[in-house]
Automatic annotation (TrEMBL):
Family listed: Belongs to the TPPP family.
GO molecular function terms noted in the UniProt entry: tubulin binding
Annotated Gene Ontology cellular component terms: cytoplasm; microtubule
Annotated stretches, region: Disordered: 111-174
Protein name per the record: EF-hand domain-containing protein
Annotated source species: Otolemur garnettii (Small-eared galago)
Higher taxonomy: Eukaryota, Metazoa, Chordata, Craniata, Vertebrata
UniProt xrefs under PANTHER family: P25 ALPHA-RELATED, TUBULIN POLYMERIZATION-PROMOTING PROTEIN FAMILY MEMBER 2
UniProt KW keywords: Cytoplasm
Coiled-coil annotated spans: none
């Protein structure tokens, strides 16, 4: 069935050793999230964890498709209140139809790009920062170009007693 195919796709997601016959709690939660079974109101991630632990065998870390079906029946009663268990299960299976595990790499790349843009886009600068830049984003005054390189080779540290000792202790200035 289509639900079993979706179950298998999520079961093997991120686990190359999985045969797809059993799904762990992490991938079960991901399936519920990606397929829209969890909505944050009637079905939360805590509900998903509770149902998973309820249907799995005591010493097991995974559930079979048969146990998965039991879990979906239970979640369907929360998600689609007032519907018969069979109708609720069919509605859940419709949510799962054709779904694949979503990868989030594109999201993070977009977030990073946006973060850099807000620092380099001078049109978004406000108040006094805007006054230091010309239209091209370059500094208007000498301070905007950065601090001038000044090296004090008169001595070590800030102690005035050591002034003039740098060249004596370091011939050649290195």
């Amino acid at each position: 069935s289509e639900a079993e195919k979706t179950f298998q796709r999520f079961a093997v997601f991120g686990d190359s050793s999985s045969s797809g016959a059993e799904i762990n709690n992490k991938n079960f939660s991901k399936l519920c999230q990606d397929c829209g079974i969890t909505d944050g109101k009637t079905v939360t991630s805590a509900d998903v964890d509770t149902v998973f632990n309820k249907v799995k065998a005591k010493d097991a870390g995974t559930i079979t498709f048969q146990q998965f079906t039991e879990a979906m029946k239970e979640l369907s009663q929360k998600r689609f209140q007032g519907k018969s268990p069979d109708q609720g299960l069919q509605d859940i299976y419709q949510l799962m139809e054709g779904k694949n595990p979503a990868t989030t790499s594109g999201f993070y790349q977009a977030a990073r790009a946006g973060a850099a843009d807000q620092h380099t886009d001078t049109s978004k600068y406000t108040c006094s920062h805007q006054e230091c830049l010309d239209d091209s984003g370059k500094g208007k005054d000498k301070d905007a170009a950065g601090p001038e390189e000044t090296t004090d080779n008169s001595g070590y540290g800030r102690d005035p007693k050591s002034a003039g000792t740098y060249d004596k202790k370091n011939p050649g200035g290195k």
